[in-house]
Design brief:
10 helices, 5 domains, Immunoglobulin-like, alpha+beta
Amino acid sequence: MKKIYLFFLMLQFLVFPEYKYLLNLSCENKKLLEIVKIASFNFISGKEKYNDIRIIDENGKECEILGVNFLKDEMEVVFKPTDSINYKVYIGYSEKNKIYEKFKTGEILIDDYLPPDSIKSGVWLWIEKSLSGFYSHTGTSGFSFHRVNFQKQFPVTPEDKIITYLFIEEENPPEEIILEVISRYRRHYYFSFGKDVINIKGIIKEKLGELPEIGKWIKMEIPLLKVKERNVEGIGFYNDKGKVYWDITSLNEIPVKMKIQKVENLISPNTPYFNYDIEGPFKIDEKKIIFLKLDASFFSSDRYLWEIDKKIYTGEKVFVKLEGEKKEINVKLKVEKDKLSGEFEHKIILGEEKEIKTNFNILPFENFIYENEKIYIPVRVENLTEIPIKYNLVSQNNKEELYLFPGKENGKTINLSLNPENEIRIELYFYDIKLKEKIIDLVDLNEKNFIIDGPFLKRNDSYIIFKIPEYSNVKKESKFSKMIFIGDFSPELIQFLNEKKIEVLNIKEAKYENYLFCEFKFIQEILDKIENESIVCLFPFINSLLRRHRVDEWGKVYDSILYLLSQKNSNIIVSSPFPSYPYPEIFQSYREKIKEITEKRNFYFIDLYKIFAENGERFFKLNDYVYKNLPDKEGLQIIIDEIGRIFENEKSTYNQGGSTR
């Protein structure tokens, strides 16, 4: 067969002398081509209305032309392919004056994603098992139903049809599948294949045939003759059991796009040709932007000179960003080889403008880190534009490409591992255009200019992370003029402590933002009240404990709090959390963490779990069935006595010329 093909090519000028162009076509998805059985290509024809087109496959077999659509300066040729993936196309004029019918190219309803503004119902599961694109969609096991209602209305005629492609798993196949068509006024039409086993109250089904062949991709056609409302607003998919995968669904046929690999001008061999790919126009920050890729690499030449909107570019391939209000782009290509030159010119008509819409958010991360500790920042990117977009996420000279389909559900979360620089910028680009930016500043623990925003700490438009230095508390001998308690205490207990000449710094109950961060900010605000000649007793605040913050995060914040206190006073006693009776084990992990910190940083530690180990719950009882977070006066007196013993021992040791630590 190959010999026949070569012989045919040798005789091409004898057999087809009237043709002006010879094109080489190829298809990258043979499987799709075999099932769809309709293909098309676009050719830049200028003002010419060519009336003789012949398409020949690899074996010399001629393909049927299904239609030709003459667009402005271009022609779309639709044909019926054979089993080949490579084709020769001859384009020219014929004295027979052939007239090709127009081909009604379809419109995609579903392929890889749903429009962001559509309304979904049922369970949509997107699976990497596809005939076209990346994904097919399916539902739950057993009885499955999922439906989408579009915001846009698709007008239809009695001759139109819905076309979908499906794959039925061989194990446990369904006995019936239904495709639902929704039209204006919420009118529903149900088209069934297989046995009549799906019984839903109020629906009237029209049986179109038996269940399609299982274990392979099948093309299904749904005629819309009986849709009286003459529009389609939604599609639904049903099966009674098993697993059905649905791929591209369209209104009328969507031909498989063939790629032009080479173009020869049989009459003027020095005349070049180019392929182009255009993205846009896009609306970005009130600017209109177009990205244009041009490729003339299949035309051999020594020099390529492009003129695009009166600007000059060189090279066999060029990529151009254009800005401004435009309805068309003028492209002229001039080539030179062996002192011969040729030119090719085309006006590219622009489509409808699309606004780039993107959600770009930082997700909760650790707001306190130790020196030289890696920073891990999760970011979420969501494409809300009508079409897929390729983004670039840039941080600290690292770049990650993200190809996102429309819709929040198709967004991606990326966990960035960053070095602890004083300023970190995380930027989101579309090509070379910066769409969004997030800034993270690393600050020391004395920074007070920040606000608490839920799980974040912010300063102006930046996020902040506090750096915890390496430190050790160094006790200095001094006279103790008073005792200060820091923590959560009821008015009754505060009065009791004041009677004992103990000052209480009690955090005020505030509207919930983030209690752990509020506790850190509270310590910053009261530092001026901490005198050097005093005993400071820190009791972990109850609100952050009740919210069950992660133990490591809680520990870092309390390590930071102790650092700040140690800069004002070295006589600091740190208490474990109060036992949470009747379930003291609830705060056990926090007790272990604060004990670990005090040992590392050289602070006094009072273990309330040990103090109240024997019959301790009686100090926390309000009645036989209700417990309090804090002890009563008797329990608090036990703590005061224990603190007194610690400092009496310390004082005695200093008088002897040493320290207990």
